[in-house]
Design goal:
The longest helix has 12 residues, at 8-19. It contains 2 helices and 23 strands. It is globular and about 60 Å long. Helices cover 5% and strands 51% of the residues. The protein has 381 residues and is mostly beta strands. The strands form 2 sheets. Strands 1, 2, 3, 4, 5, 6, 7, 8, 9, 10, 11, 12 and 13 form a 13-stranded antiparallel beta sheet that branches. Strands 14, 15, 16, 17, 18, 19, 20, 21, 22 and 23 form a 10-stranded antiparallel beta sheet that branches. It has a single domain (8-368), classed as AttH-like domain (AttH-like fold), CATH 2.40.370.10.
Amino acid sequence: MSWERLSWACLLALTLTACGQQEAPGGEGVSATLREPDHAGFERAFAPRAFSFPADHGPHPDFREEWWYVTGNLDGPEGRRFGFQITIFRHGLKRGMPSRPSNWAGQDAYMAHFAVTDVAGKRYTAFQRLSRGAAGLAGSQLEPFKVWLDEWRIEAVRGDDFPWRILAQQDGIALRLEISPLKAVVLNGEQGLSRKSAEPGNASYYYSITRLRAEGTLRLSGEDIPVTGTAWLDREWSTSMLAPYQAGWDWFSLQLGDGSELMYFQLRHKDGTTDPTSSGSLVSPAGTLMRLAREDVEVEVLDTWDSPAGGRYPARWRLSIKPDGRTLEIRPVLADQELRHDARYWEGAVDITDPQTGASVGRGYVELTGYASGKFWKTGE
């Protein structure tokens, strides 16, 4: 889901300071770009569009914001369990491709987050990187498919389609995975148009691959651990989404043991009410899609967790899916899976149980925003 997790003005200031970037003499500088009206020059998501694959795995430079988002639950030897997240964000400074024939001419800034949850070790570790999309430092392309920031990469093993390879490493933690779809692409919302508020254009183009096979190695404390498991891919691009009266969201991506998957996002208003555009997708074991509206899903918070950096998050949920009569209990594998960098939000691996029997019925990931003070992401633009 991963919408506008931080103020992009803050991101760009950090990026350009770190890179020592100066405004081009005689050209339109970054400062002027940051002063532009929020939507100037970029397309917005007003209506459904035709999707095409593998082309839509690649970048969409006519839109301002875009991300490639992969999470998953992995198993190692002797019952060891891990969660992982890698997300690469693209923010357009200008619409389209660069017009100047220079290696330093870039239209985009990039941010990436890489996180690992070691369940047995009771440790969550998260990293962030920022870069300008120029001089090979960061970028996105289709042929061959590749999205990268420094040596962190999501890329096709060959060509422009699956399987993909995930590579990320920092401070002795390294992840190397190959992922391949076990289900077809799901178009969320209205044929891929996912509305986020009542204002026309406050929407994204949004698709998921709800179950992928993942296999590779995870390095922790000098040990290379063979891992296998399942992953989830979310892809969105947009120019504007949230409204000023919206405070944040709760996003659930759940992979159930019967072979079905559930995606549901609950948008919260500042007065605590739930936005009517909250919605989701339920995918059957055979791949049949059922679209879910706000009234189809009930989310009850059963517990909370206080961040050591301030802020209180939900920490356990009962989720009822009314169309199929199913009720699930969702619990984090670790309480503290909060990313505390320029953006503050909670993103973590969860277990899913049957509330009647307590039996395990699946695994997943949850994302929570708008619960902590000091956040840098913005709404309403």
